[in-house]
Specification:
The structure is a single chain. The chain has about 270 residues and is of the alpha+beta class. The protein has one domain (about 15-265): Sandwich (Jelly Rolls). About 20% of the residues lie in helices and about 30% in strands. Strands 1, 2, 3, 4, 7, 10, 12, 16, 19 and 20 form a 10-stranded mixed beta sheet that branches. It has a 4-stranded antiparallel beta sheet with strand order 11-17-14-15, with no helix packed on it. It is globular, with a radius of gyration of 18 Å.
Amino acid sequence: MPRVAPHDPFFRVATATAFTHRLLSGLAAGRYAAVRVPGFFSPERCAEVLGALERRTFDSYGTARVQPPVMRFGVGISDHMADGGVADSYWEALEGHDRAWRALDLSFDPFAVCREALGAHWPGGVAVGRRGGRELGDGVAREPNQGFLVHFDDASREYTEDLLDTPLIGQFAFNLYLSVPPSGGETVLWRHRWQPEDEAYRLPASYGYDEAVVRGAESLEITPCAGEALLIDPRYFHAVRPSRGARRVALGFAVGLASSGQLVTWA
């Protein structure tokens, strides 16, 4: 008989109508790899935000570090890392970010709506994180039409000291899909977290790794749907496949589980 590959029953995706306390605590505890909520935004809300964004010019993440290029509207803190901390340039860029989002003249604040829904069943609620008493960015719109390379996200490893004023004991990544392509654009997660020997696979001057770093690891693939929200454990190595046929635009931000019990976000 053919050998059946071993499967971790906790390496799975939960689909639900809301981000419940059970699902969020399960994601933090490692009982899920991801949680998805279809219909998180109505088609009308997606169309309003997407229509406003289509009239604006997207920038790219720093191309010296992010190749192939990933377009975005808003400011990402990853472009302002300096010596294991956050460069002063981030705060100046954040002022422009706030002006740009206000200029969209939306009938609602999409990031505030996301936070409210995300924290509806969480006792500590959700708030935008602070560093040195100053509020960080609340989110960005991303368009990774050429995909994201294999990588992981873990603020405790990326920053020398605590990124936020409150220490984190867990981290998630949130995406709300405004538009999706007819094919491609899948998020792939591998049941593999960073180990020191993985640095041999890191691509020069890049955030990403050669896909050989996850060779043989169990994986799962998530096809995005417009209006759906997805919360993943980004400490697993993950990637986004290139889009084919249309734009893949999503609102995104990081979510941390603080030692206080509150959920905090940043971008």
